[in-house]
Structures are given as structure tokens and as C-alpha cells.
Amino acid sequence: MKILVLNCGSSSIKYKLYDMSDRSVMAQGGAERVGIDGAFVKLKLPNGEKKTIMHDIPEHTEGVKFIFSLLTDPEIGVIKDMKEIDAVGHRLVLGGDKYNKSSIIDEDLKAVMEEMKDLAPLHNPAGLKGVHAIETLLPQVPQVGVFDTAFHATMPDYAYLYPLPYEFYEKYHIRRYGYHGTSHRYVSQRVCEMLGKDIHHTKIITCHIGNGASISAVKNGVCIDTSMGLSPLAGLMMGTRCGDIDPSIVTYLENKLQKTPAEMDVILNKESGVKGITCLSSDMRDVEEAAEKGDPKAVLALQMYDYRIKKYIGAYAAAMGGVDVIVFTAGVGENQTSTRETACSGLEFIGVKIDVEKNKKIHGEEAIISTPDSKVAVCVVPTDEEMMIANDTMELVKK
């Protein structure tokens, strides 16, 4: 079975084509600047060579159509005809309370996605564009939606509800949904395979630390809490997002600066976090380099960033009554050794001991970075959300 996985953003289309007989990646790449001048597709050729192709992509259907042409290209393609694709799996962000697991895409699912778009204005409309593109270009092929929020649907009500008037939850779906769920699900399963542990009897804290970042408490195989909330703005300090702040700051600044809610939304989502503190960059590589040169704002940003990760780890250890495994994943979690070391420093009281020298050598590969006598296993596991989407798609289509 050949499965195409699509991840559509507001101006991007990422794709991977899998041969599920051996779970190999046949092709992968992504279109960027969709609907913007200077659009292009980056892809990896079958021989491993990377290639960038400039191509005008006015909207998502045209982008998917161009990707199809690359997959079937006589020189760089990997299939002869798009009819070889048996199913398409989509990364979808928010399905609300109704869709708490991966599902075959039908009219009802699309309607719920449309209904929830106010809560995920960047992600839900983009995901639907990918669905509509496949309907247009491959109308007979089954499609599956794999929701970012699904893994967090197991949270108890006392964890996902906000202390607001209850009618806001009933009428407007105001609750903690959590995001990055497919990544948290993958690394929690994979780390148990690495360690030879039974996930149903293990307490895991999963740290998805990238430009967007979230931490989850996974107890005996299910999520009981996660740092992101109604939207991906809550929780940790991120590249450009502020994370948890006193909500009165929002109304105070709206009045003080005469800002509209829309303008405040831009500040909180795109001008805050690491970028806001450093006045330099949202890229942690740039920030680390500046900090090494003594830039005080870069040093401060790293301290704030790592401190908040440590606070959530401590909170979730308390929520689960202990922790057996801490796992780091995503761009920063897999590669930024200083963040892993600092976030775990001071956690010796719960049994965490980092092998400092080994940690410094680990970049983007599976590894145990705790010492042999550490009561808590601390690991790095590169995430693979696309494989989870492909697996869910295959299972549902088979049924």
C-alpha cells in the first residue's frame, strides 16, 4: 500500500510518500510561499540529492498538482501514475471534542473543521485546502484526518477545563485542547521501545521543543495533561509566542497602547517569546551564538526559555506522582544540548542525572543521555509525525 501524507500550512505544503509494505519513504519535500511571489518546492531525490525547483503556486490545489507532477516525473519521479496511491493522510490540527481520534474524512468531519476554524484560524482552513485539493485531483482516493489534538483527548475534565463560567465551555468550546499530539504520541511509544518498557506501566514526560513547543504528561500510555491550551499560544516560551502570561496583561496593553484585539494577537503570537526578549531572532541557533558572545538579552532569553521547561517537567512529575522517563524531541529538543542540560539541572531530587559529556555529543539521533545510575531515563528521540499519520491512515483504510 502506498500512502501520501500531506501537511498543509497557510502558505506551505509538506509531503511524504510511503511504501507501507516496508514503511520506506519513497519521496519527500515541501512547497513554500504558496500564494506568494517566489514560490518553490524543495525535495529529496531517490538518490538522496536535494533539489529546489522554482514554480509559481497561486493556491493549494495548484501546489498539490505540481507535487503530483514531480512524483510522476520520468526523471526524478518515483511512481508512474498517481493511481498507484492508495490513500492520503492529512495532518489536521483541531477537531474539537467530537473528533478525538484519527478518522476517515467525510462531509461531517469537514463541517466540524469549518466550525472550529475560529479557534485555529491559521491551521484548520489550511488543512481543509489540502483535503479539497485531493478531492479535486484524486476524487476516488480515501482520505484520513489525523488530529494534533487527538492524543490529548484523554485528559480529565479537571485538567482541560478553565476556571471560567461553565457556559463558555458549553456554548463556545473554551477548553484546553493541546497540540503536537501526534509527535507526543510517537515519541512516548518509541522511547518505551528503546528502553524495553511497557508504556502501560510507565510515567513519561514528553518535551516537544521547537519554534513551537509543548510538554505533555503521559501516564500509562495516555495523556493526562499538556502545556498548550485552547490555542498553541499557551504554555512554554517559544520562538515568537509568549506562552503563559497573566491574562490581564492583554487588556492592560490594549488600553495603554490603544491596540485592537487583532493587533494584540499579532504581538503575542509573532513578536513575543525568544524574538521579543532578544530583539534579535526566533531561531535558537542565532540566540545561542549571540549568548556565547555575551549578548545580555540572548543570555536572559535562554535562561527564561530553559527555566520554563524545567517548571513544566517538575509540575508534570507531581501530576503523575513521579516520572520514569523524560524525552526530548523536535528541532531544539533534538539538537540544542545546552537546553537539555539546563532544563534537567536541579532535578536530581526526582532522580534525574544527566551524562553531561554524552549529552553534548547528541544531535538529532536516538540516545539515552542520563547516567546509568539515574532513576529517571532521559532520552532524545527524533519525532516522526508523518509515519504516525501513515500508520493511522493504513489501519483505517484497511478497515
From TrEMBL:
Mg(2+). Can also accept Mn(2+). Substrate binds at residue 91. It is found in: Cytoplasm. The active site is at residue 148. Gene3D superfamilies: 3.30.420.40. The record marks 180, 241 as: Transition state stabilizer. Belongs to the acetokinase family. This is Acetate kinase. It comes from Hoylesella marshii DSM 16973 = JCM 13450. The lineage of its organism: Bacteria, Pseudomonadati, Bacteroidota, Bacteroidia, Bacteroidales. The gene is ackA.
